[in-house]
Structure formats: structure tokens, C-alpha cells
Amino acid sequence: MDEHLKRHLAPGDDGRAFTEAVLFRAAGALARRRQAVAEGPTWSLLEVWARPWLIATLLLLAVAIAVPSIPWGAEPAATTDAGVSADALLGSANDSDVVLSVALGN
Amino acid sequence: MEPDAALVARAAAGDREAFGVLVLRYQESVRRVTRAVTGNADDADDAGQDAFLSALDRLETYDPSRPFGPWLMRIASNAAIDLVRRRTVRAAQPLEPDTATPGPTPATDAESAEIRSAFAAALAELTPRQRAAVTLFDVEGYAHAEIAKMLRVPEGTVRSDVFHAWRVLRKRLRVYGPETEE
């Protein structure tokens, strides 16, 4: 059956006319390719390759700028209840720590 | 014989001769598949030409470490299926016996007109994808997995398409004797 099917679907010519028709239609595209080769390498490939790196670099820069401006840690809580925290800290500290901090402060 | 990958590289640089060799080398397979899918000799050659032009446009996407045939057949099958979809209004006519097998050969002389029209009728009963699948499998010798990639369907779908196509072809050709039933 395969052979019958193959015979049934066979174009029945040597394909030269078909090939010429394809080449005729492809003339413009082939000429553009030749012209591109003659003009030398373009930056398009570099652009395609570099685009992800460019985006990544921009993102990193944005993060680097944004990070210092973010209020990190528990600073807001410390400022709102600074007296209590200081007292608690002082109360919890050992005598030797207090003496050391006083000595350093002086 | 110059390898396909070398011809592709030259064609990508605009070498007309290299592209012509590629077209001549693969035109028969491409046209068989597009004929099976479109069921019409003129549409088949239009789709075949479109496939080669599309391949030329996309040469940069071809991986030279892999065979060129399956890559091209994928483009050709899809070009033919797309053409059939675009021309749903103009129903595909079965291949006329004269255009399907022009040029008298001993084989075609022996083959009766009834068998040829039975083939045409059987193919017309199938969907474009089923026609592509059975032709790529039986005539062009590609594996189910390769055809699945070409047609962008699961491998099981290809097996089912080929099986269904066989069933239809056998049913249509049963009356013509055991030779056509294998």
C-alpha cells in the first residue's frame, strides 16, 4: 500500500520547473541576504544577546538606588517608645556593661 | 554530495545555487506531503513553494547539528495544512488521476484508474492532518515521534491519525485485491 500511495502522490516530473519557480520567488530574499553579508556584520545579534543583560543591569541599578532609601530594621518602633526601651535596656544590663559604657562615653 | 548543513550555510549567505540544490533535493518529498494534505496538485505546489520560501526566511532557526529533512517537513506540513484551512470555501478536490501520476511508467500503466481514484477518494475522507501523518509515516518513512514534533501534536495523536488513515485506505482499497491491503 505504501508504494501505491507513494506513486499516487508522486509529482511526476523532475522538479526542475518547481525549483525554478521557488528560486524566482526567492530572488528578493536571497538578494537581501547577499547584501547583508556584503555590508558586514550588524549589531542586531549583539543587541539580541545583550538585551537580557541590559535589562538585568537596569534592574540591579534600580535595586541599588532603592535599597538605601528603605527604612530597614526596627528603627520606627524604637523612636516611638524610646524612653521605655532605654529604661528596659538599662535595667537589663549588667553593672559591668554600664560601667564600660560610661567609661567609653567619657 | 554536499551536506545539507553546508548548503544551508551558503543559502543563508544568499547563495542561489546552494538554495536551488536544497530545493531540488527535497522538492519531491515536500510535494508528496503537500499533495496528500491539500488533495490538489496546484494547491500542493503553492504550499510547497511557500514552505521553501518560509524555510529560507527562517534559516537562522535551523540547528545544523540536526537533520534538515524533518525541519523542512515540519514547515511544509504546516504550510499545507494552513493553506487548506485558508481555503475552506474552496473545497479541496481529490487529485485527478492525470495530474497525480502524469508521465507513463510501467507501474502507472499497470495500475488501474479505479485504484487511483480509490486512493484519491480515501485521502479525501481524511483530515489534512491525518493525510500529512500517513504520508510522512508510510511514504517518507519518518517515525511517529518525529511526525509529532513536525505537526506539533502528541505522539499518540499521530499514531491514531496513521491508524485511522490505514483503516480508511484499506476499506477503500479492499476490493482491489490483497496486494493493496498490506
Describe the structure.
The complex is a heterodimer of chains A (106) and B (182). Helix content of chain A is 80%, strand content 0%. Chain A is an all-alpha fold and 106 residues long. The N and C termini of chain A lie far apart (104 Å). In chain A, 11% of the residues are buried. Chain B is globular. The longest helix of chain B is centred in the first third of the chain and has 23 residues, at 16-38. Helix content of chain B is 71%, strand content 0%. Chain B has 10 helices and no strands. Chain B has helices spanning 4-12, 16-38, 41-57, 68-86, 97-100, 106-110, 113-125, 128-139, 144-151, 155-173. With 182 residues, chain B is an all-alpha fold. The chains are: A mainly alpha (106), B mainly alpha (182).
SSE map:
The complex is a heterodimer of chains A (106) and B (182).
Chain A: H1 2-9, H2 16-38, H3 44-69, H4 75-80, H5 82-92, H6 95-105
Chain B: H1 4-12, H2 16-38, H3 41-57, H4 68-86, H5 97-100, H6 106-110, H7 113-125, H8 128-139, H9 144-151, H10 155-173
Helix pairs in contact in B: 1-2, 2-3, 2-4, 2-8, 3-4, 4-8, 4-9, 7-10, 8-10, 9-10
Number of strands of chain B: 0
Oligomer classification: heterodimer
Largest sheet of chain B: none
Question: Could you report the average pLDDT of chain A, rounded to the nearest whole number?
Answer: 74
Largest interface: A-B, 31 and 50 residues
- Tell me the number of helical segments of chain B per DSSP (H or I, 4 or more residues long): 10
Global structural class of chain B? mainly alpha
Give me the strand/helix succession of chain B: HHHHHHHHHH
Helix content estimate of chain A? over 70%
Helix fraction bin of chain B: over 70%
| Computed Rg of chain B | 17 Å
Distance between the termini of chain B: 35 Å
- What portion of residues of chain A belong to β-strands? under 5%
What does the overall shape of chain B look like? globular
Radius of gyration of chain A: 39 Å
**Portion in beta strands of chain B:** under 5%
Please identify the structural class of chain A as seen in this structure: mainly alpha
Q: How many extended strands of chain A? A: 0
